[in-house]
Design a protein that fits this description.
Order of helices and strands: EEEEEEEEEEEEHEEEEE
Oligomer: single chain
Distance between the termini: 24 Å
Structural class: mainly beta
Number of strands: 17
Radius of gyration: 18 Å
Number of helices: 1
Strand content: over 45%
CATH class: Mainly Beta
């Protein structure tokens, strides 16, 4: 991606089969139009002043950015990632009549050629996500089932364990999540093969996070109501790879961030 795109915690990019410390689901794929998006909108007047995130991009260049699209009910229906003016990834979201995302179709070119997949989400009677099934495009309109992800909740209905299973039903990875009193994820432990791989800790401001509950992604950016100001990581897989970062923000009148700075990198946030 372009300059500074990974410099801020809000600019979280989904990639294929990577061992992400904040997310266990594997993501790739292009849209299969099996369920229809309703009334996709890009710049409608009715979205104005809703503080719906529109674009994120480095201050140094507008050619590399993430753009979000919504329907007439203000639900996100598509996200596109551009690098140097070229489309690098696209995710489309499809809903049921309870406004739950039941399918994601994804496409990306991060590893050279295009990669495609889709994800099916299942919910319980309380509309909590309980399972995700991942399918990878294998060619000639054929998709192979690749993994199952399950979610465990605490008594406050917060996801505390996310586990991924291979096609044989063996748990291969899992993520533990810990929260503060307002629901921010303050610590995660990521395990592979039963061994702790990453420990991440976070501190937050008290302002609004525009990514909270935007999709069904289980990560600190989507779950936490506030914005990360400090992030530290212990990497148990690689000696000398530990790090710590700090972030500062500027906000609009509704207390949503309009910029995030880390070191020399600054990312801008635009809203509808």
């Amino acid at each position: 991606m372009g300059d500074g795109l990974n410099a801020t915690p809000l600019y979280h990019l989904k990639t294929i089969v990577s061992i992400m410390k904040h997310k266990l689901i594997i993501i790739f794929a292009l849209a299969l139009i099996i369920f229809g998006c309703e009334d996709e909108i890009t710049q409608p007047d009715e979205l104005s002043n809703k503080n719906l995130l529109h674009r994120q991009y480095p201050e140094a260049t507008k050619n590399s950015y993430i753009e979000y699209f919504y329907d007439s009910s203000f639900k996100v229906v598509k996200r596109e990632n551009f690098g140097d003016g070229k489309l690098e990834a696209k995710i489309e979201y499809f809903y049921n009549d309870k406004n739950n995302i039941i399918k994601e179709t994804t496409y990306h070119t991060y590893f050279g050629g295009p990669e495609y997949s889709y994800f099916l989400h299942e919910y319980d009677q309380k509309n909590f996500i309980v399972k995700t099934l991942a399918y990878l495009f294998m060619g000639t309109d054929t998709y192979d089932f690749r993994s199952t992800t399950t979610y465990e909740y605490d008594t406050n209905n917060r996801i505390v364990v996310e586990s991924i299973y291979n096609t044989e039903g063996t748990k291969t990875k899992y993520l533990e999540l810990f929260y503060d009193s307002v629901g921010n994820v303050i610590e995660t432990n990521f395990y592979q093969g039963g061994k702790l791989s990453f420990n991440d800790k976070y501190k937050y401001d008290n302002k609004n996070n525009p990514l909270q509950f935007l999709t069904k992604s289980v990560d600190v950016y989507n779950l936490s109501p506030n914005n990360i100001v400090e992030h530290s990581q212990i990497n148990y897989m690689m000696i000398g790879a530990d790090y710590a970062r700090k972030y500062s923000y500027e906000y609009n009148g509704s207390n949503f961030p309009i910029s995030c700075t880390s070191g020399s990198q600054k990312v801008i946030f635009e809203y509808y």
